[in-house]
Write a structure and sequence with these properties.
The protein is mostly beta strands and about 100 residues long. The protein has a single domain, classed as Lipocalin (Beta Barrel). The protein has no helices and eight strands. An eight-stranded antiparallel barrel has the order 1-2-3-4-5-6-7-8.
Length: about 100
């Protein structure tokens, strides 16, 4: 099954639950993707890698404070699960469900 799609995601952080939408469009070679994240803290374009059913990408947040996030998730059917690494702030679980 392809990892392409739009996922309604949630991650639990020290600032509370953060909800966002992740859109994933694989490149023709199937080894990378582009997309967009939009949610409670705004929107941004993202790009990352695909390894089978595993996605990896980085995000640079500017609010409520600048922080770099390293994200990894595995897609199983219509479910996404993984972790968001926030440097000194720790690592937080992320889950999602494909909506399109």
């Amino acid at each position: 099954m392809t990892v392409a799609g739009t996922y309604a995601c949630s991650t639990k952080t020290p600032m509370g639950e953060q909800n966002f939408t992740l859109a994933v469009t694989p490149a023709p070679d199937g080894n990378s993707f582009t997309g967009q994240v939009s949610g409670d803290l705004g929107s941004m374009d993202v790009a990352g890698t695909i390894d089978g059913d595993r996605l990896s990408w980085k995000m640079e947040l500017t609010k409520p404070m600048p922080v770099s996030l390293d994200c990894e998730a595995t897609v199983a059917g219509d479910t996404l699960s993984g972790e968001v690494g926030a440097g000194l702030f720790g690592t937080f679980p992320v889950t999602g469900t494909r909506t399109a």
